[in-house]
Amino acid sequence: MEKPSAQDAEARIAAGQLWHGGLAVATARTWLAQLERHTPEVAAGLDAARRGDLDTFLRQVRNTSLERGLLERTDRLLVMLGDFGWDDVGTWAALRRARDLDDDGNGAHGDVHFVDAESNVVHAGAGRVVLYGVSKMLVVTRDGLTFVTSLDRAADLNRLLDALPGSMRINPGGAPPA
Predict the structure, then answer these.
(1) Exposed/middle/buried for residue 92 (C-beta within 10 Å: 0-12, 13-18, 19+)
(2) Cα gap 28→19, rounded to integer Å
(3) Per-residue pLDDT tens over the stretch 72-111
(4) Distance of alpha carbon 117 from alpha carbon 100, whole angstroms
(5) Is 75 exposed, middle or buried (CB count within 10 Å of its CB: 0-12, 13-18, 19+)?
(6) Where along the chain do its domains lie?
């Protein structure tokens, strides 16, 4: 189950149940040892990863989630009750909730300047970005590539990625840095 509904979550809490909230902590050595022991989908490529051979690693691994591939299989898991704020920043557009906003509702990371602009999200991982006279836009710059779309279309970045030639793919649709 990805996330319980609000009603299901309340019932589970009332019953004293806990569930994985997406935070996991371990040393790199522990992660690698547990992946090698419990996750055959990834274990075959770990030697290549240790050598820094990303191409071989990617050819040797099979797709699996961390939850199914490791957390459901390991014998070294401790679930703890946490009491802290949380926001599942799973899309670039969701960064508006995780960033400090200016008086016009713009959220930014990096060298960004807004003029007559409101409700925009900019992640300038490389270079400078200036937004002028626009609203509700998403701008992401990374590694010499810039993505621009409306916040309404930001959830569709995977469709854009599928349409890009291989040389332009840098995984901007993945989880953004917090």
Answers:
(1) buried
(2) 23
(3) 999 988 888 777 776 666 677 777 777 889 999 999 989 9
(4) 16
(5) exposed
(6) 6-71, 95-168
**Which one has a higher pLDDT value, 33 or 166?**
33
Report helix, strand or coil for 65.
coil
Q: What is the DSSP string of 76-115?
A: --------S------SSTTHHHHSPB-TTS-EEEEEEEEE
Q: Are 123 and 137 in contact (CB under 8 A)?
A: no
Q: What are the distances in angstroms from CA 163 to CA 90, 152, 156, 158?
A: 21, 19, 11, 9
DSSP state of 68: I
Nearest-angstrom CA–CA distance, 40 and 116: 53
- What the block records as the tokens of 56 is 């071989």
* Token pair 């946490």: residue: 82
pTM of the predicted model, to two decimals? Answer: 0.54
Output 80-85 pairs: Cβ under 8 A, ≥24 positions apart. Answer: 80/18, 81/18, 82/21, 82/23
Q: What is the dihedral of CA 13, 3, 38, 78, to 10 degrees?
A: -30
User: How is residue 74 written in tokens?
Assistant: 């390991």
Contact (CB, 8 A) for 80 and 49: no
